[in-house]
Amino acid sequence: MSFRLFAMPVLILLLGQVSGIFLFVWSSHVEAFVLLDLAITAKLISLMLWLGSLAIGLSWLLMRLKTLFLWKKRRLYGGCVHCQGALSHHDDEHGFYSKCMMCNARHY
Ligand SMILES: [Zn+2]
Questions:
Q1: Chunked mean pLDDT (size 10), the chain, 108 residues
Q2: Cα(15) to centroid(ligand 1), Å
Q3: What's the 3-state SS for the chain?
Q4: pTM of the shown model
Q5: Which of 4, 23, 35, 52 has its CA 20 to 30 A from that of 71?
């Protein structure tokens, strides 16, 4: 149905979580005393990456769930002429166009 609606929040969430955990695990294996500052910095960055992606991804996901809920209840007045769904706007070699996030219809 509406894969497009949840693709970006889930992508942000997954990339942030995986890279944050990867960086944290990598920085735990640094044993040389010279690199200790680097390891601590990497741990701080990984923690911020993890928390930031969690906050941004989850809040974006909740907003998209609210959009889906409103659309299901027929209280969303989007620009799609087929289903009243919300539109995302794009640009390619053929010019500007909008794509419905609910039914994937293109509007030129
Ligand atoms: Zn539509």
A1: 83 94 86 73 92 96 92 87 88 90 87
A2: 29
A3: CCHHHHHHHHHHHHHHHHHHHHHHHHHHCCCCHHHHHHHHHHHHHHHHHHHHHHHHHHHHHHHHHHHHHHHHCCCCCCCCCCCCCCEEEEEECCEEEEEECCCCCEEC
A4: 0.76
A5: 52
